Amino acid sequence: MVSTTGVELLPHQAVRQLREHLLPLTTILTPNVPEAKLILSNANIPFEDPQSVIDLIDMAKAIQSLGPKYVLLKGGHLPFRKDGSVASTHEDGAIVINILRGEGETTRIESVFQKSKNTHGTGCSLACAFFSASNSQVLADTNSCNCVEPRKWTKYSTGSEKCL
Q1: Residue 106, SS3 per DSSP
Q2: Residue among 110, 97, 2, 15 nearest 57 (CA)
Q3: CB-neighbour burial class of residue 57 (10 A; exposed 0-12, middle 13-18, buried 19+)
Q4: pLDDT tens digits for 86-130?
Q5: Lowest CB count within 10 Å: 49, 60, 144, 161, which one?
Q6: What's the predicted TM-score (pTM) here?
Q7: Is it true that domain 12-153 has CATH number 3.40.1190.20?
Q8: C-alpha 110: how far from chain center
């Protein structure tokens, strides 16, 4: 719905249709932070730009209130410092925090922030790995988060790959 560069890929009306008709039927929604902001804005739900883990949790709860049974809020676009504050630049980033919200529980999934140009598609890979690992039941699986890390370390660009 939102590209890495911040370009909205769906018209406002399409986001509304998705929000009103698909989210109530969704088992697990896997937005990144820019997509979550777009959905909340489209729903006229007030939110602040995340400045803490609590803000990410609140964002995941707000998205879940729109219908999905689970929300995996992917934090790759919002690196944190080791002290838990949002990094002002990617160079200051030390950790990535993904939030899984569902069935009244919140799980924080933390991994090392990788400074790399080869991150294209890693959010899609995370969502696919997470869903695949869950089988018929959604589980917080840190291995899903870790399986995308090697893609960021390689010297090869992944810009031409497509998420299935």
Answers
A1: strand
A2: 97
A3: middle
A4: 999 888 999 999 999 999 999 998 988 877 665 555 666 666 666
A5: 49
A6: 0.76
A7: yes
A8: 12
The domain segmentation of the chain, as residue ranges, is 12-153
Check if the beta carbon of residue 107 is closer than 8 Å to that of residue 140. Answer: yes
Half-sphere exposure of residue 38, counting CA atoms within 13 Å on the CB side?
Answer: 21
Looking up tokens 């109530």 gives: 24
Are the CB atoms for 54 and 65 separated by under 8 Å?
Answer: no
Nearest-angstrom CA–CA distance, 75 and 56: 8
Contact 138, 121 (CB under 8 A): no
Token pair listed for 48: 């602040």
C-alpha dihedral over 109, 129, 47, 108, to 10 degrees? -10
Q: State the DSSP H helix or E strand holding residue 28, giving kind and residue range, or none if neither.
A: strand 28-29
HSE of 34 in the Cβ direction (CA atoms, 13 Å)?
A: 13
> How far apart are the C-alpha atoms of 72 and 26, rounded to whole Å?
12
